[in-house]
Amino acid sequence: MSKAKVGIVVFPGSNCDHDAYYAFKDILKVDTKFLWHKEGNIEDRNIIILPGGFSYGDYLRCGAISAHSNIMQDIIRFANKGGIVIGICNGFQVLCETKLLPGILLRNNNLKFICKTVSLKVENNKSIFTGYYNIKEDIEIPIAHGEGNYFCDENTLTELIGNNQVLFRYNDNPNGSISDIAGIQNLGRNVLGMMPHPERASDNILGNTDGIKLLKCVAESVM
Amino acid sequence: MYTAKIKVTLRKTILDPQGKTVEHSLISLGYKNIKNTRIGKYIQFDIDTNSEKEATVITEEACKKLLSNPVMEDFEFEIFKNGETL
Description:
The structure holds two protein chains of two kinds.
Chain A: E1 5-10, H1 17-27, E2 31-36, E3 47-50, H2 70-80, E4 84-88, H3 90-98, E5 104-106, E6 114-122, E7 138-145, E8 149-151, H4 154-162, E9 166-170, E10 181-185, E11 191-194, H5 212-221
Parallel strand pairs in A: 1-2, 1-3, 3-4, 4-11
Antiparallel strand pairs in A: 5-8, 6-7, 6-9, 9-10, 10-11
Chain B: E1 2-10, H1 17-28, E2 41-47, H2 52-67, E3 73-81
Antiparallel strand pairs in B: 1-2, 1-3
């Protein structure tokens, strides 16, 4: 039995929180609970999920307002001490706005909201997130975003690549992301941000379970 | 009371697909010499203080902390004594 205690943060406008809850609680049988954003702390949770959605209606910039919410201050402290945090889609945008991850997500270069399953390449399988994949394995994971075009300056990109922080790349770049980046980890290797939704590819009934390995790997990384 | 008027724009090095799309539409309307179209945000608020200096400091901080993200945006602002320009 995993010792993982997953906390899924709920902001006004989060809409993938229940999908993530279902994947951890019902499929992986992990202790999972929701954390309302107004709470000042993450309680006894040792894995934090920032789910997809449109927190605060994407007002100002995607993730900008959530990044300053009460609970995020505790999550930043938690992450800086090595705590595991995963931001999926809107959660990735929040992590960039808090600076827990470098860069930013711009509007897709074709200006369209893209909702489809895409092919990703696992670029690094020596992480607590991707250990159950093979290196260079192709996996199919759904995306659903209008602002998923990852951007950072050249120095940051060189560092990301040099430090093996790029975990996933798009095989057929859908949104204009620099260097085809779909998901990155921080330098401390405890924070992951990705635009694709592994929780939407976690149940047999959905016809695709390529995402469950990621969630399982993280859950089992907590001893 | 002072009023801050803030412009947040995408940095010059960042492509602005929305600006480009609007520019195509302007050109199709016949404005063939329009170029370099950029789209940004305009934000305005009042600051309850009698000090222009304090109003400036607060606005600058707000721009840096929340209203813009330096990875992709620049900001500029002007401070007006309330009512002067409204």
